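Below is a filled-in request sheet from our internal design queue. Each sheet records the structural input a requester submitted and the sequence that came back. We keep these sheets so that new team members can see what a complete request looks like end to end.

REQUESTER: design group, bay 2
PRIORITY: normal
MODE: inverse folding
CHAIN LENGTH: 161
BACKBONE (tokenized):
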């Protein structure tokens, strides 16, 4: 299972970026396949475009409307899915989704609603999670409880620095 962090250009330099924690924890400590790709509106990553066209790409993103039908892979299996997560502020991620037809084409998984504990950014959407919090939930739902707990601990340390 590859996880792709599709990162907005501005996010790459932000000290409050939690995508960096995900990369360090999952690649270095857990040896799980995670790739960070810089989002480009005019030159999308051809592999992600191909996966979306083949209906093999899952976008981890909240439903835009409470009544929106959101697919759920059965069983939720980390190893057999291709996941993409938009690593950006909520305003930037909405723009990325709106300007990327292949992301709109991807199957969408909306994780169960929960309260974010992320302290390092203001003006967050109610019920919205940061990148690290989403990956913690995905790992837990996929049966990777040790990796989920390790990433959660790194996130809490980072969040309270």
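RETURNED SEQUENCE:
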């Amino acid at each position: 299972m590859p996880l792709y962090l599709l990162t907005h250009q501005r996010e790459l330099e932000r000290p409050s970026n939690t995508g960096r924690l995900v990369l360090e924890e999952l690649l270095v400590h857990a040896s799980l396949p995670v790739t960070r790709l810089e989002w480009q509106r005019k030159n999308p990553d051809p592999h992600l475009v191909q996966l979306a066209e083949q209906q093999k790409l899952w976008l981890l993103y909240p439903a835009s409307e409470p009544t929106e039908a959101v697919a759920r892979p059965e069983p939720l299996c980390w190893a057999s899915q291709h996941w993409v997560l938009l690593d950006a502020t909520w305003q930037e991620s909405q723009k990325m989704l709106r300007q990327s037809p292949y992301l709109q084409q991807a199957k969408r998984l909306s994780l169960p609603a929960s309260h974010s504990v992320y302290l390092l950014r203001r003006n967050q959407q109610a019920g919205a999670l940061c990148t690290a919090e989403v990956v913690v939930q995905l790992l837990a739902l996929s049966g990777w409880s040790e990796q989920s707990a390790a990433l959660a601990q790194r996130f809490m340390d980072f969040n309270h620095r």
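SHEET NOTES:
- Strands lie at 3-7, 34-38, 57-60, 82-87, 107-109.
- Residues 15 and 99 are 26 Å apart (CA to CA).
FILED BY: M.R.
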